[in-house]
Specification:
By secondary structure, this protein is of the alpha+beta class. The protein folds into two domains: about 80 residues, no CATH class; about 240 residues, Alpha-Beta Plaits. Helix content is about 40%, strand content about 20%. It contains seven helices and eleven strands. Strand 9 and strand 10 form a beta hairpin. The longest helix is centred in the N-terminal third of the chain and has 40 residues. It is flat.
């Protein structure tokens, strides 16, 4: 973390304005830390007043001066936690648009129906916060669910709102086809990727193998008579992205490149965070029923996030797209962890 002096010197660099990327980064750092700097000034002022009053008391024990000292000392003490909170460096990707990938995992058709439910929940949640949602792709399942789907969420703070959704989501409910009323457990995995531009991730086209094929619907039913579907394979990493929802091969290619770019960025981001031990990334795991970040229990009408131990109503909140209680608890937990990491690593305002 840069100190105020370092940021001031960076802002005063006459060459800064000629480098748009560095100019934006430095200004954002200053904006993010401006509250901490102001609070630090207030802390120094309160500490100085307490020290001055202490010196006065050494010469003359006066009740009013004692009150001044105690009030200044209490003010300085109260400012400490606020300064530490304000100094938490935000995730640099928080303001980005995001791609949310939902895949049915354990549970067959019931898992596919649950994956469809998650797409609906996330769409309502995003729209309730003024974010725009674009369905990038959806592989339909026979019973009306989806085997996998990708949505793009656009708007300021989209990634910040969705990043904690990554992981295995478990549902417990009685399927419509269950005649004995037995509760089944199924899972879906969610991956959340910050969406990036060409300037953020450069992809050598020679590293990308491009295959085209005919689009198909559920059960292999042909929905297109031309080779419009696109499959991209990034040879250095083995990442594969397929798109077939658009009728145009070019549109499918462009969408596939957006997803590939986001996955490569997330891969680099995860490696960087692992090296720095910052913002521990939750793996989406294998999709096994025993792995979970959240459980959706229909018979008991509740949703529990196991990372923070928070439980909220299922039908009255989650299914209508109100994830705010869960998101706020997860964001608070992230801030706490970031504060611990920054405290261990040092830093000053």
């Amino acid at each position: 973390m840069r100190t105020r002096q370092e940021l001031s010197e960076a802002l005063g660099d006459p060459d800064l304005s000629s480098d748009r990327g560095r100019y934006a980064a430095v200004n954002k750092q200053w904006s993010d830390l401006s509250e901490a700097f102001d609070l630090a000034d207030a802390w120094r002022d309160a500490t100085a007043r307490a020290a001055e009053a202490e010196e006065m008391l050494a010469e003359d024990d006066d009740a009013d001066v004692r009150t001044m000292r105690d009030e200044a000392a209490a003010e300085a003490e109260a400012l400490g936690p606020r300064i530490r909170e304000a100094m938490i460096e935000p995730d640099p990707d928080d303001d980005r648009d995001t791609l949310v990938e939902i895949r049915a995992a354990a549970g067959g058709e019931e898992a596919a129906l649950f994956a469809r439910d998650l797409v609906d929940v996330y769409t309502r949640y995003a729209e309730s916060h003024g974010l725009r949602v674009e369905l990038m792709s959806a592989a339909e399942a026979d019973a009306g669910g989806v085997r996998e789907a990708t949505i793009a969420v656009k708007g300021r703070g989209a990634f910040a709102r969705f990043k904690h959704e990554a992981g295995v989501h478990r549902v417990q409910r009685v399927p419509a086809t269950e005649s004995q009323g037995r509760i089944h457990t199924s899972t879906a995995t969610v991956a959340v990727l910050p969406e990036v531009e060409d300037v953020d991730v450069t992809i050598d086209r020679n590293d990308v193998k491009r295959d085209v094929y005919r689009s198909s619907g559920p059960g292999g039913q042909s929905v297109n008579t031309t080779d419009s579907a696109v499959r991209l394979t990034h040879l250095p990493t083995g990442i594969v992205v397929s798109m077939q929802d658009e009728k145009s091969q070019l549109q499918n290619f462009e969408r596939a490149m957006r997803v590939l770019r986001a996955r490569l960025y997330e891969r680099a981001r995860a490696e960087r965070e692992a090296e720095m031990s910052v913002a521990r990334k939750s793996s989406i795991g294998s999709g096994d029923r025993s792995e979970k970040v959240r459980t959706y229990n229909y018979p008991q009408n509740r949703v529990t996030d196991h990372r923070v131990g928070v439980t909220v109503p299922l039908r009255e909140q989650v299914l209508v797209g109100n994830l705010t209680s869960l998101t706020e608890a997860l964001s608070a937990d992230e801030r706490r962890r970031r504060l611990e990491e920054q405290t261990d690593g040092g830093g000053a305002a």
